[in-house]
Protein backbone atom coordinates (compact mmCIF):
# COMPACT_ATOMS: atom_id res chain seq x y z
CA UNK A 1 0.00 0.00 0.00
CA UNK A 2 1.05 1.38 7.30
CA UNK A 3 1.10 3.58 10.12
CA UNK A 4 3.17 5.03 12.87
CA UNK A 5 6.73 4.07 13.65
CA UNK A 6 6.48 4.38 17.42
CA UNK A 7 7.38 1.32 19.48
CA UNK A 8 4.15 1.25 21.45
CA UNK A 9 1.99 1.00 18.33
CA UNK A 10 2.10 -1.80 15.75
CA UNK A 11 -0.65 -0.24 13.66
CA UNK A 12 0.73 -0.32 10.17
CA UNK A 13 -0.48 -1.58 6.83
CA UNK A 14 2.85 -1.33 5.08
CA UNK A 15 5.62 -3.63 6.35
CA UNK A 16 6.51 -2.71 9.92
CA UNK A 17 9.65 -4.65 10.83
CA UNK A 18 11.75 -3.07 13.58
CA UNK A 19 15.47 -3.71 13.17
CA UNK A 20 16.39 -6.75 15.17
CA UNK A 21 12.97 -8.37 15.19
CA UNK A 22 12.79 -12.09 14.48
CA UNK A 23 11.23 -12.83 11.08
CA UNK A 24 9.74 -16.31 10.89
CA UNK A 25 10.13 -16.83 7.18
CA UNK A 26 11.41 -19.93 5.43
CA UNK A 27 11.95 -20.79 1.79
CA UNK A 28 9.23 -23.44 1.92
CA UNK A 29 6.72 -20.71 2.81
CA UNK A 30 7.72 -18.73 -0.27
CA UNK A 31 7.32 -21.81 -2.45
CA UNK A 32 3.92 -22.44 -0.90
CA UNK A 33 2.83 -18.85 -1.59
CA UNK A 34 3.81 -19.14 -5.23
CA UNK A 35 1.90 -22.41 -5.52
CA UNK A 36 -1.17 -20.80 -4.01
CA UNK A 37 -0.74 -17.72 -6.17
CA UNK A 38 -0.47 -19.81 -9.32
CA UNK A 39 -3.56 -21.75 -8.32
CA UNK A 40 -5.39 -18.48 -7.76
CA UNK A 41 -4.47 -17.36 -11.28
CA UNK A 42 -5.94 -20.53 -12.72
CA UNK A 43 -9.21 -20.61 -10.86
CA UNK A 44 -9.61 -16.84 -10.35
CA UNK A 45 -12.75 -17.38 -8.29
CA UNK A 46 -11.52 -14.87 -5.77
CA UNK A 47 -9.68 -11.62 -6.30
CA UNK A 48 -8.30 -8.90 -4.10
CA UNK A 49 -6.24 -5.49 -5.00
CA UNK A 50 -4.40 -2.21 -4.30
CA UNK A 51 -5.00 1.17 -5.98
CA UNK A 52 -2.99 1.72 -9.15
CA UNK A 53 0.47 2.53 -7.84
CA UNK A 54 4.05 2.95 -8.98
CA UNK A 55 5.96 0.67 -6.61
CA UNK A 56 4.68 2.00 -3.31
CA UNK A 57 2.56 5.13 -3.58
CA UNK A 58 -0.52 5.78 -5.77
CA UNK A 59 0.02 6.90 -9.35
CA UNK A 60 -2.15 8.98 -11.67
CA UNK A 61 -3.07 5.85 -13.64
CA UNK A 62 -6.62 4.51 -13.72
CA UNK A 63 -7.47 0.91 -14.53
CA UNK A 64 -8.85 0.43 -18.08
CA UNK A 65 -12.61 0.26 -18.38
CA UNK A 66 -14.13 -3.23 -18.14
CA UNK A 67 -10.83 -4.63 -16.87
CA UNK A 68 -10.40 -6.29 -13.47
CA UNK A 69 -6.94 -5.91 -11.97
CA UNK A 70 -5.71 -8.56 -9.53
CA UNK A 71 -2.52 -8.12 -7.53
CA UNK A 72 -0.50 -10.13 -5.03
CA UNK A 73 2.20 -8.11 -3.23
CA UNK A 74 4.81 -9.46 -0.85
CA UNK A 75 7.23 -7.49 1.35
CA UNK A 76 10.21 -9.45 2.63
CA UNK A 77 12.20 -7.88 5.50
CA UNK A 78 15.95 -7.81 4.95
CA UNK A 79 16.71 -8.38 8.65
CA UNK A 80 16.16 -12.07 9.31
CA UNK A 81 17.21 -12.62 12.92
CA UNK A 82 17.09 -10.94 16.30
CA UNK A 83 14.75 -10.29 19.20
CA UNK A 84 11.52 -8.37 19.43
CA UNK A 85 12.40 -4.99 20.95
CA UNK A 86 8.93 -4.13 22.29
CA UNK A 87 7.97 -7.75 23.09
CA UNK A 88 4.59 -7.19 21.44
CA UNK A 89 4.60 -10.05 18.99
CA UNK A 90 7.28 -12.73 18.93
CA UNK A 91 6.43 -13.69 15.36
CA UNK A 92 6.66 -11.26 12.45
CA UNK A 93 5.89 -12.60 9.03
CA UNK A 94 6.28 -11.39 5.48
CA UNK A 95 3.54 -8.89 4.69
CA UNK A 96 1.10 -10.20 2.08
CA UNK A 97 -1.36 -7.97 0.23
CA UNK A 98 -4.00 -9.41 -2.11
CA UNK A 99 -6.24 -7.02 -3.94
CA UNK A 100 -8.74 -6.25 -6.65
CA UNK A 101 -9.24 -3.00 -8.53
CA UNK A 102 -11.73 -2.24 -11.29
CA UNK A 103 -12.71 0.81 -13.32
CA UNK A 104 -16.02 2.58 -12.82
CA UNK A 105 -16.19 4.91 -15.83
CA UNK A 106 -15.73 4.38 -19.55
CA UNK A 107 -12.72 5.91 -21.29
CA UNK A 108 -15.06 6.83 -24.15
CA UNK A 109 -16.64 10.23 -23.37
CA UNK A 110 -19.92 9.37 -25.11
CA UNK A 111 -20.34 6.26 -22.92
CA UNK A 112 -19.00 7.79 -19.71
CA UNK A 113 -21.72 8.22 -17.07
CA UNK A 114 -20.34 11.58 -15.93
CA UNK A 115 -20.08 12.68 -19.54
CA UNK A 116 -23.78 12.05 -19.97
CA UNK A 117 -24.44 14.48 -17.13
CA UNK A 118 -22.04 17.11 -18.44
CA UNK A 119 -19.97 16.53 -21.55
CA UNK A 120 -16.62 17.95 -20.25
CA UNK A 121 -16.70 15.33 -17.48
CA UNK A 122 -16.67 12.55 -20.05
CA UNK A 123 -12.87 12.33 -19.82
CA UNK A 124 -12.87 11.75 -16.07
CA UNK A 125 -12.12 8.15 -15.12
CA UNK A 126 -12.49 6.37 -11.80
CA UNK A 127 -11.50 3.14 -10.09
CA UNK A 128 -12.24 1.43 -6.80
CA UNK A 129 -11.27 -1.76 -5.03
CA UNK A 130 -10.20 -3.43 -1.82
CA UNK A 131 -7.25 -5.17 -0.18
CA UNK A 132 -6.86 -8.15 2.09
CA UNK A 133 -3.68 -7.87 4.18
CA UNK A 134 -1.96 -10.32 6.48
CA UNK A 135 1.41 -10.61 8.20
CA UNK A 136 1.01 -7.52 10.40
CA UNK A 137 0.51 -9.38 13.67
CA UNK A 138 -2.68 -10.53 15.37
CA UNK A 139 -3.64 -6.99 16.44
CA UNK A 140 -4.09 -5.84 12.83
CA UNK A 141 -4.66 -9.16 11.07
CA UNK A 142 -8.00 -9.46 12.85
CA UNK A 143 -9.23 -6.57 10.67
CA UNK A 144 -7.62 -7.34 7.28
CA UNK A 145 -9.92 -5.47 4.86
CA UNK A 146 -9.05 -2.07 3.37
CA UNK A 147 -10.75 -0.05 0.62
CA UNK A 148 -9.68 2.55 -1.92
CA UNK A 149 -10.93 4.73 -4.77
CA UNK A 150 -9.53 7.23 -7.26
CA UNK A 151 -10.74 9.85 -9.77
CA UNK A 152 -8.44 11.09 -12.52
CA UNK A 153 -7.91 12.40 -16.02
CA UNK A 154 -5.14 11.23 -18.40
CA UNK A 155 -2.44 13.33 -20.02
CA UNK A 156 -3.64 15.62 -22.84
CA UNK A 157 -7.26 15.11 -21.75
CA UNK A 158 -8.42 18.68 -22.39
CA UNK A 159 -5.48 20.30 -24.15
CA UNK A 160 -2.07 19.39 -25.54
CA UNK A 161 0.71 18.98 -22.94
CA UNK A 162 -1.80 18.83 -20.10
CA UNK A 163 -0.52 16.69 -17.18
CA UNK A 164 -2.48 13.77 -15.82
CA UNK A 165 -4.18 14.39 -12.48
CA UNK A 166 -5.63 12.08 -9.84
CA UNK A 167 -7.27 12.45 -6.44
CA UNK A 168 -8.24 9.60 -4.18
CA UNK A 169 -7.98 7.72 -0.91
CA UNK A 170 -6.65 4.35 0.16
CA UNK A 171 -6.09 2.16 3.23
CA UNK A 172 -9.56 2.96 4.48
CA UNK A 173 -9.80 0.24 7.09
CA UNK A 174 -12.83 -1.14 8.85
CA UNK A 175 -11.72 -0.63 12.47
CA UNK A 176 -11.78 2.88 13.96
CA UNK A 177 -8.54 3.98 15.66
CA UNK A 178 -6.86 0.80 14.45
CA UNK A 179 -6.94 0.40 10.66
CA UNK A 180 -8.73 3.54 9.41
CA UNK A 181 -5.56 5.21 8.06
CA UNK A 182 -7.63 7.03 5.41
CA UNK A 183 -4.81 8.31 3.20
CA UNK A 184 -6.12 11.10 0.95
CA UNK A 185 -3.91 12.33 -1.87
CA UNK A 186 -3.64 14.52 -4.93
CA UNK A 187 -1.09 13.87 -7.66
CA UNK A 188 -0.11 15.14 -11.11
CA UNK A 189 2.11 13.49 -13.69
CA UNK A 190 3.63 14.35 -17.07
CA UNK A 191 5.74 12.49 -19.60
CA UNK A 192 8.65 14.69 -20.70
CA UNK A 193 11.02 14.46 -23.63
CA UNK A 194 13.87 16.40 -25.21
CA UNK A 195 13.67 16.07 -28.96
CA UNK A 196 13.24 12.36 -29.61
CA UNK A 197 14.65 11.41 -26.21
CA UNK A 198 11.98 10.27 -23.79
CA UNK A 199 12.95 11.35 -20.27
CA UNK A 200 10.15 9.37 -18.66
CA UNK A 201 7.14 10.40 -16.61
CA UNK A 202 7.57 12.64 -13.57
CA UNK A 203 4.88 12.75 -10.89
CA UNK A 204 4.41 14.84 -7.76
CA UNK A 205 1.70 15.40 -5.20
CA UNK A 206 0.75 15.49 -1.55
CA UNK A 207 -0.97 13.12 0.88
CA UNK A 208 -2.55 13.34 4.31
CA UNK A 209 -3.82 10.58 6.58
CA UNK A 210 -5.26 9.86 10.01
CA UNK A 211 -3.09 11.71 12.52
CA UNK A 212 -4.10 9.37 15.32
CA UNK A 213 -2.37 6.48 13.58
CA UNK A 214 0.38 8.01 11.42
CA UNK A 215 3.15 8.91 13.85
CA UNK A 216 6.94 9.02 13.84
CA UNK A 217 9.37 6.95 15.92
CA UNK A 218 8.85 9.31 18.87
CA UNK A 219 5.09 8.93 18.79
CA UNK A 220 4.52 12.40 17.35
CA UNK A 221 1.93 13.02 14.66
CA UNK A 222 3.44 12.83 11.15
CA UNK A 223 0.49 12.24 8.86
CA UNK A 224 1.26 14.20 5.69
CA UNK A 225 3.96 14.65 3.11
CA UNK A 226 5.19 14.83 -0.46
CA UNK A 227 4.61 12.21 -3.14
CA UNK A 228 7.13 11.99 -6.00
CA UNK A 229 8.06 9.50 -8.70
CA UNK A 230 10.12 9.03 -11.85
CA UNK A 231 9.26 6.14 -14.15
CA UNK A 232 10.18 5.09 -17.66
CA UNK A 233 9.63 2.24 -20.09
CA UNK A 234 13.12 1.24 -21.27
CA UNK A 235 12.21 0.76 -24.90
CA UNK A 236 15.90 0.91 -25.89
CA UNK A 237 16.22 -2.47 -24.21
CA UNK A 238 12.68 -3.81 -24.39
CA UNK A 239 9.15 -2.38 -24.33
CA UNK A 240 8.47 -4.93 -21.61
CA UNK A 241 10.96 -3.37 -19.16
CA UNK A 242 9.94 -0.53 -16.82
CA UNK A 243 12.02 1.29 -14.17
CA UNK A 244 10.89 3.59 -11.37
CA UNK A 245 11.99 5.50 -8.29
CA UNK A 246 9.09 6.23 -5.95
CA UNK A 247 9.04 8.43 -2.81
CA UNK A 248 6.54 9.15 -0.03
CA UNK A 249 7.57 11.74 2.54
CA UNK A 250 6.77 11.07 6.20
CA UNK A 251 8.51 9.53 9.20
CA UNK A 252 5.51 7.28 9.80
CA UNK A 253 5.47 3.77 8.40
CA UNK A 254 4.22 5.08 5.05
CA UNK A 255 7.38 7.08 4.38
CA UNK A 256 9.86 5.40 2.06
CA UNK A 257 11.95 5.66 -1.08
CA UNK A 258 11.54 2.72 -3.41
CA UNK A 259 13.59 1.50 -6.35
CA UNK A 260 12.19 -1.07 -8.71
CA UNK A 261 11.73 -2.61 -12.13
CA UNK A 262 8.86 -4.38 -13.82
CA UNK A 263 8.66 -6.89 -16.63
CA UNK A 264 5.54 -7.51 -18.73
CA UNK A 265 5.26 -11.17 -19.62
CA UNK A 266 2.13 -10.48 -21.65
CA UNK A 267 -0.10 -7.43 -22.07
CA UNK A 268 -2.09 -8.60 -19.03
CA UNK A 269 0.55 -10.19 -16.76
CA UNK A 270 3.51 -8.38 -15.19
CA UNK A 271 5.74 -8.48 -12.12
CA UNK A 272 7.56 -5.82 -10.08
CA UNK A 273 10.72 -6.38 -8.08
CA UNK A 274 11.69 -3.51 -5.77
CA UNK A 275 13.67 -2.42 -2.75
CA UNK A 276 12.06 -0.28 -0.03
CA UNK A 277 14.07 2.02 2.27
CA UNK A 278 11.97 3.56 5.03
CA UNK A 279 12.42 7.18 6.11
CA UNK A 280 12.28 6.00 9.71
CA UNK A 281 15.56 4.08 9.88
CA UNK A 282 14.32 2.13 12.89
CA UNK A 283 12.28 0.17 10.36
CA UNK A 284 13.94 -2.64 8.45
CA UNK A 285 14.25 -2.31 4.68
CA UNK A 286 12.12 -4.67 2.63
CA UNK A 287 12.29 -6.34 -0.76
CA UNK A 288 8.97 -6.36 -2.58
CA UNK A 289 7.66 -8.76 -5.20
CA UNK A 290 4.38 -7.78 -6.85
CA UNK A 291 2.41 -9.87 -9.35
CA UNK A 292 -0.24 -8.07 -11.42
CA UNK A 293 -2.85 -9.58 -13.73
CA UNK A 294 -5.66 -7.98 -15.75
CA UNK A 295 -8.80 -9.81 -16.77
Structure description:
With 295 residues, this protein is mostly beta strands. The chain has a single domain, classed as Porin, CATH 2.40.160.40. Helix content is 9%, strand content 41%. It is built from 3 helices and 12 strands, in the order αββαβαβββββββββ. It has a 12-stranded antiparallel barrel with strand order 1-2-3-4-5-6-7-8-9-10-11-12. The protein is globular, with a radius of gyration of 19 Å. The protein starts with 26 loop residues before the first helix and ends with a strand.
Keywords:
Porin; globular; 295 residues; disordered N terminus
Radius of gyration: 19 Å
What would you call the shape? globular
Q: Order of strands side by side in the largest beta sheet?
A: 1-2-3-4-5-6-7-8-9-10-11-12
Query: How would you characterize the largest beta sheet?
Result: 12 strands, antiparallel, barrel
CA-CA gap between termini = 21 Å
Question: Which stretches of 5+ consecutive residues score pLDDT under 50?
Answer: 1-13, 15-49, 81-90
**Known CATH architecture:** Beta Barrel
Sum this structure up briefly.
With 295 residues, the protein is mainly β. It is built from three helices and twelve strands.
How is this fold's topology laid out?
Blueprint: H1 27-43, E1 68-77, E2 95-103, H2 113-117, E3 125-134, H3 138-141, E4 145-153, E5 164-173, E6 180-194, E7 197-208, E8 224-233, E9 241-248, E10 256-264, E11 269-278, E12 286-294
Antiparallel strand pairs: 1-2, 1-12, 2-3, 3-4, 4-5, 5-6, 6-7, 7-8, 8-9, 9-10, 10-11, 11-12
